[in-house]
Specification:
This protein is mainly alpha-helical. It has a single domain, classed as Glycerol uptake facilitator protein, CATH 1.20.1080.10. 64% of the residues lie in helices and 0% in strands. The protein contains nine helices and no strands. The chain is globular, with a radius of gyration of 19 Å.
Length: 250
């Protein structure tokens, strides 16, 4: 189980979520500026930046908190015993606040109004179905790697999956309730209208439940210790770690 002080883990989740939202929104604004009238190129630029940036953000903050930055990851981890439920529920507000702050920061970096409510409506049936699939796929990547003792490649795998899912889903793979809320506050390429957000969050929670069920079938022997390695191993070493024991003569 994770032994890092909860306050430090919450700070890591808040900062990581803020960087994630700034990355997604900021790269969307840059793409829209650099490649106007070419939506395909804009999406590619946004996806590439997100994939690479998410990898590095997990490496930055993962050792402190596990690098969730996503309520469905925290809820799934708690369901498998990787973190306590009360800690997962504490992660969620930090993730949401972090994503809102990150969107505001991204707006400011491009000399836009700090808060501009998006008018980009996305909640068609195809978008919502895409969010179920995108979210389920993300969680399957994370927990299959944890179960098969390949958690060390999860940061790269998560980044690669999200980058790919930008293109194989019609919703551009939000797969994260916190980022869905944060992106409401930027009326730019990556924004989402407030009216679309509840549907996205419900779809993401459905995807979370589906992924949990599939993992329990495919990896029924997933242990809490293995789940604790998702997304990135983050347990602190005990205070005496690294101290060589003194051996007395027999």
């Amino acid at each position: 189980m994770n032994t890092s002080p909860l306050a430090r883990r919450l700070l890591a989740e808040l900062l990581g979520s803020a960087f994630l939202a700034a990355l997604v929104v900021g790269s969307g604004i840059a793409a829209q500026t650099l490649s106007p009238n070419d939506v395909g190129l804009e999406l590619f630029e946004n996806a590439a930046a997100t994939a690479a940036g998410l990898y590095t953000i997990i490496l930055m903050f993962g050792p402190a908190s596990g690098g969730h930055f996503n309520p469905v990851v925290s809820l799934a981890d708690a369901s498998f015993g990787g973190i306590r439920w009360r800690h997962a529920l504490a992660y969620i507000p930090a993730q949401v606040v972090g994503c809102v702050l990150g969107a505001v920061v991204a707006n400011g970096m491009f000399s836009l109004a700090a808060i501009s409510i998006s008018t980009h409506h996305r909640a068609s049936p195809a978008h919502l179905f895409s969010e179920v699939i995108a979210t389920a796929g993300l969680l399957l990547v994370i927990f299959s790697l944890a179960r098969t003792k390949r958690a060390h490649i999860a940061p790269a795998a998560v980044g690669a999956y999200i980058g790919a899912a930008y293109f194989f889903t019609s919703s551009a793979s939000f797969a994260n309730p916190a980022i869905s809320v944060g992106r409401m506050f930027s009326n730019t390429f990556a924004g989402i209208a407030p009216a679309s957000v509840p549907g996205y969050i419900v779809a993401q929670l459905v995807g979370c439940v589906c992924a949990i069920l599939v993992v329990r079938v495919l990896y029924s022997d997933l242990t809490p210790d293995e789940a604790a390695e998702a997304v990135m191993p983050h347990s602190e070493e005990p205070p005496h770690a690294g101290v060589r024991p003194i051996r007395l003569p027999a």
